Amino acid sequence: MKIRDRLVMLFSSLVMLNLLTVVIGGVSLSLVSNNGPVLSIAGQEQALVFKLTYLAYVYRSQISPSDRLTTRKQIKDNLDQFENSLKTLDQESDKLGLKPMTKPRVLAQLQKVETSWVVYRQYFDHILQGTPDQYAGDISDINTLTLFITNELDTLIELMHREAADLVEQTQQMLVSILGLSLLIMPLAYFSVSRIVYSLTQVTQTAQRLSQGDWEVKTLVNTHDEVGILSDTFNQMVRQIKASRQSLLDYSQTLEEKTQELEQILTQLTSTQAQLVQTEKMSSLGQLVAGIAHEINNPVNFIYGNIPHLEDYVQSLIRVMQLYQQYYPQPVPEIQTEVDENDLEFLQADLLKILDSMKIGTSRIRQIILSLRNFSRLDEVDFKWVDIHEGIDNTLMILAHRLKARENCPAINLVKEYSQLPLVECTAGEINQVFMNVLTNAIDAIEEHNALRTVQEIKQNPSQITIRTSVLDAEWVMIAIADNALGIPQQVQKDIFNPFFTTKPVGKGTGLGMSISYKIVTDKHGGKLECVSTPGKGAEFLIKIPIRRH
Question: Domain total for the chain?
Fold first, then answer.
């Protein structure tokens, strides 16, 4: 039997029992309540009989016509009221649901009351129409009739009370029977509801475990009712959700992988764009530097090439003057005056010093121009055999002004530990750019460190940059550039080669230098760029590149 049918049957039985109880109680209450008006009217009639008897005595004793007239009116009103009560009593008695055995007795008693009342009324009519000397006999009969009527009314009231008591007793017996039947139905209802609650509890617990992520759970309800159908449907739904969830997880995994790929592509595009911009800027800068170096190189070469001839000419002139002084020690006064005013001996000695200074200065300018021309090969993208030491020295030549001493800041010591390196096949301009970025960062770190120290502390522990080169094996060379600044924190080291990452103030660093350097060394040349740093003890960048292009 289905749950709905069982519940309908149980609840229908309970509802029928409740309705039967209500109906029986209502009927009993109605019958008992119907006795109420009859009993009330009987009581009122008793009161009216005693009042009429009292008014009869008052009427007899009164002498004043006005008083007698008032009492007479009261007697008539009470007689009419009693008449109306009898009519109402007849009507209410017809509504009583009396038992067959009780009803004749009640009706007979009512008939006695009405018969007595007819006689009672005749005596009062006689009193109201007669003379005072006739009242004595009438009053005596009225007393007798009053007692008779009240006794009859008492008998009627007792019959009605007995009828009500019997009805209440029967109602109680019927209610006890209905209660016993309800007690028999309740265990069956409890058993049915318990089965339903147990099945629903199983489904609820399964749903809770499912909400906690247990996708292997299933309900174990094997009934063939609605809960069993619900259980089977629930299990089927769990299987469908599990399959859909797995599909969603697979799709989410695929989507996450695609997202990571897109993020990597975006990062590569951003880095490539930045590198292209930086390369274009450096290429333009290289062309500018190369142009300036070329323009300066020609006049400097002209000066540098003529200095030896000038030196020969000056030497010849000095020798001629020395010979002239040797053979003509006593010149004319005018020449002697001119020699004394111009200090000819000082001019001869200082002129040679000036020539030496010019030679040193023009030689230095030629070296700087050569370094600029070598470093400016940033637009060269072809692999060539390059002297690594020459590239480092050219970079140091350009950065020489940052290594020199300044006000309240001693010079940065430069230590070069060069090994014998073979020529390396690489792109010279880009490798020079790597040297420039690493050395610039080292100088920046030292300047930040020096800003936190006094001049005396700097002199006690001088700032230093150490450049070491070595051959690792037959295929690799290494360039190590170290400083003795504050070092790089561990949490920063993992990000220093990321594009746009910088620890420098806004406007001083773009975050592209080390990123571009990393790509040049690793992607372009197949090498390695590593950072080794201990906070408080400086940092060292290791540039490892293959000797021959792979």
Answer: 3
Answer whether residue 236 is part of any domain: no
Please tell me the predicted confidence (pLDDT) of residue 32.
Answer: 46
Q: Rounded to whole angstroms, what are the CA distances from 411 to 181, 416, 446, 467? A: 113, 16, 11, 16
Question: Residue 90 maps to which CATH number?
Answer: 1.20.120.1730
pLDDT in tens, 81-101: 777 777 776 666 665 555 454
8-state DSSP, 524? I
pLDDT bracket for residue 328 (50, 70, 90): confident
Are 385 and 394 within 8 A, CB to CB?
Answer: no
DSSP 3-state percent helix, strand, coil across the chain (nearest 5): 75, 10, 20
pLDDT (0 to 100) of residue 21: 59
Answer yes or no: are the C-beta atoms of 442 and 395 closer than 8 Å: no
Angle (CA) 455-461-466 rounded to 5° is: 120
CA-only gyration radius of the chain, Å: 67
Provide the residue range defining the domain that includes 118.
3-203
How far apart CA 196 and CA 463 sit, in angstroms, is 87
Nearest residue to 512 via CA among 292, 299, 337, 275: 275
Three-state SS string over 181-248 comes to: HHHHHHHHHHHHHHHHHHHHHHHHHHHHHHHCCCCCCCCCCCCCCHHHHHHHHHHHHHHHHHHHHHHH
User: Do 375 and 470 lie in a common domain?
Assistant: no
Give dist(CA 273, CA 279) in Å, integer. 10
Report the candidate in 92, 90, 84 with the shortest Cα–Cα distance to residue 111. 90
**CA-based torsion, 321, 325, 331, 337: positive or negative:** positive
Q: Over range 230-245, report the average pLDDT.
A: 77
Does residue 508 sit in the same domain as residue 365? Answer: no
182 burial via Cβ count (<10 Å: 0-12, 13-18, 19+): middle
Cα–Cα dist 123/141, whole Å: 8
Q: Are strands 464-471 and 476-483 parallel, antiparallel or unpaired?
A: antiparallel
- Distance (Å, rounded) from C-alpha 394 to C-alpha 388? 10
Nearest to 499 by CA among 486, 487, 484, 517: 517
Residue for token pair 């993208």: 381
Determine the Cα angle at 266 with ends 261 and 272, to 5°: 125
Closest CA to 467 of 404, 504, 406, 412: 412
Asked if residue 241 belongs to a domain, the reply is no
Nearest CA to 438 out of 513, 388, 488 is that of 513
The reported pTM is: 0.43
The conformation of residue 77, written as its DSSP 8-state character, comes to H
